[in-house]
Amino acid sequence: MPDDPTIKVSPQPANRIDGREFSEICPAYLGRPHARLDPLREQGPFAWDETQKQYFLVCHGAVRRVLQDRTLLRDRSRAGAGTAVAGTYDAPPKDIVERRNGAQVLIFKDGEDHVRLRTLVGAFLARVREARPVVEAIVRDVVTALPAGGVAFDLVAQFAIPIPVRVIATLLGLPQNDHTKVRAWSDDLALGFNPYRTQEEDGRRWQAIREMLVYFRGRLEVARATKTSDLISDWLSLKERGADLSEAEIVDHCIMMLTAGNLSTTDLISNATLAILRDGGLREKLLRDNGLVAAIIEEALRVDPPVTTTDRIVARDGDVADCPFREGDVLTTSLLAANHDPEVFADPHRFDVARPLRPHLAFGAGAHICLGAPLARLEGQTAIRELFARFRDLQLLDESVQLRPVPGHRGPSQLMVRG
Ligand code: HEM
Q1: By alpha-carbon position, which residue is closest to atom 11 of ligand 1?
Q2: How far is the CA of 12 from the centre of ligand 1 (A)?
Q3: Residues 233-260, mean pLDDT to the nearest whole number
Q4: Rounded mean pLDDT of 215-224?
Q5: What number is the average pLDDT over the span 86-91?
Q6: How confident is the model at residue 12 (pLDDT cuts 50, 70, 90)?
Q7: How far is the CA of 362 from the centre of ligand 1 (A)?
Q8: Which atom of ligand 1 is nearest to the CA of 380?
Q9: Minimal CA–CA distance to 366: which of 64, 117, 1, 46?
Q10: What is the pLDDT averaged over residues 148-157?
C-alpha cells in the first residue's frame, strides 16, 4: 500500500499480480503468456497489479465493456498519481515546445477534442479505399527483391518491416528518397512503447521527434506550394475549408501514422506468415484457395494480436462493468487474454481458420477503435497472398522463434526462412 496520502486507492480484488510478470519484458510470459493469463481469467475479470498500481482485465466481456465505455479516458495526464501510466506521461526536452502538452493526436484525446480530430479520419479512409493498387505494387516490389533459389533471409527485416513503412510514406506523399530516413525515425519512435527504455534510447526517441517535426513542417510547405495530391494535402485542404484544426495537429498526425501503423502491421504480417509456416495443412489450403487469406489474417489477429494491451482511465468515481472505481484508476485491458477467452472462442489457443464467428478485439472497440484497421487488413492479406504465390515451399529455418520483448506488442524479432 503506498504511504503517500495523495494516492487514492480503490477497493482491490482478491487476485493480485505483479504486472512485470504479465509484460512482454518477462521472458517466461513472452514465451507462454496463456500459462499465466488462463488461470488469472478463472479468478474473475479484474486483477490488481501491485507493482503498477493499476487494474488488469482479462475477460472478453469486461474488456469489451471497458473499451466501449465512453465515460473512460485515454488522456494519460488524468491517470492517478503512482500508477505506471502516469509515469509514462513524460515531459519533452525544453527545446521541443510543441510537445509541452503531449502529442496532439486523437489516440490520446477524449470527448469533444477526440470528435474534432476524427475529422481527419474521413480523408484517411478515402485514401485507404483507393490504396489497393499502391499496396499491391509495393508488396510485389518487396517480394521480387527477396532472394530466391534456397538462399536464407530474415523475413521480418526484408519483408514485414519495409511494407508498412513504404505504404504509409506513400499515402503521406513522401518522396521515395526519404523512405529510409522515415523508416529509421519510425524505429526510434517505437522505443516509446517500452516504459523501461534506457536514457540513451529515450534521447534517440526525442531526437527522432525533433527531426520529424521539422521534416513534416517542411512537407506541409511543399504540399501547399506544389498542390500535391496525398493525405497531407487532403488534411491541409480540410483546414483551408474551415475545419477546426491547427497545422501543429496535422504535423502530429503525420508522425502518429508512422507510430501507430508500422510495428503493428509488421507484426501482423510476421505472425500470419509464421502460423502458415508452422501448419502444413493450412499452407495447402491457402495454395488451393487464395480466398482463405482473409480468414487467415483475422485468425492471426485473434491468436496473436500485435497490440496486446491498451489502457483506460476512470474520469470520476463510479461503476465500470459493474465494479466500483475511483477517479484516476487505470484499467489495463489485455486484448490478448480477451481474444483467448474460452467463453467466446471454443478451444481458444487453436489457430482455426474455420471459426464461425471471430469477435476479436485486436483493433480495440468503441470510440478509439483502430482507424487503420482496413489498411492493416489490406496490407496483411496482400502480403500473404504475394509471398506464398512466389514462395510456395517457403521453409522456416529455426523453430525457436524469438519474440520482440516490447511491452504491449507481440511479434517475432526475426524469422529466418529459405525460399
Ligand atoms: C495490425 C495492425 C494494427 C493493429 C493491431 C492496431 C491496433 C490498434 C488498437 C488496439 C487501437 C485501439 C487503441 C485503444 O482503444 O486504446 C488502435 C487505434 C488506432 N490505430 Fe491502429 N492498429 C493497427 C494498424 C494501424 C494502422 C495501419 C494505422 C494507420 C496508418 C493505425 C492507426 C490507428 C489510430 C489513428 C488509432 C487511434 C484511433 C482513435 O483513437 O480514435 N493503426 N489501433
Answers
A1: 370
A2: 30
A3: 93
A4: 96
A5: 72
A6: confident
A7: 9
A8: 1
A9: 64
A10: 95
Residue whose C-alpha cell reads 496532439 in the numeric block: 104
Q: Is 381 in the pocket of ligand 1 (CB under 6 A)?
A: no
CA of 74 to the centre of ligand 1 (A): 13
DSSP 97-161: GGGTT----GGG--HHHHHHHTHHHHHHHHHHHT-HHHHHHHHHHHHHTS--TT-EEEHIIIIIT
* pLDDT for residue 51 is more than 60: yes
For residues 32 and 415, what is the distance between their CA atoms, to the nearest angstrom? 18
Instruction: Measure the CA angle with vertex 333, ends 82 and 250; round to 5°.
Output: 85
Confidence (pLDDT) at 7: 53
With CA atoms as reference, report the closest residue to 334 among 360, 308, 313: 308
**Domains defined for the chain, CATH in brackets:** 16-418 (1.10.630.10)
What is the rounded distance in angstroms from the CA atom of residue 7 to the CA atom of residue 257? 35
Question: Greater confidence, 416 or 96?
Answer: 416
Mean pLDDT value of segment 313-342: 94
What residue's CA is closest to ligand 1, atom 40? 107
- Judge contact between 195 and 407, C-beta under 8 A: yes
Among 68, 312, 370, 382, residue to substitute to test ligand 1 (most atoms within 8 Å of Cβ): 370
Nearest atom of ligand 1 to the alpha carbon of 256: 35
> Per-residue pLDDT tens for 164-201?
999 999 999 999 999 989 989 988 988 887 777 888 99
> Measured at the alpha carbon of residue 204, what is the angle toward residues 200 and 206, in degrees to the nearest 5?
115
The pair phi, psi for residue 47, each rounded to 5°, is -120, 155
Average pLDDT (194-219) is: 91
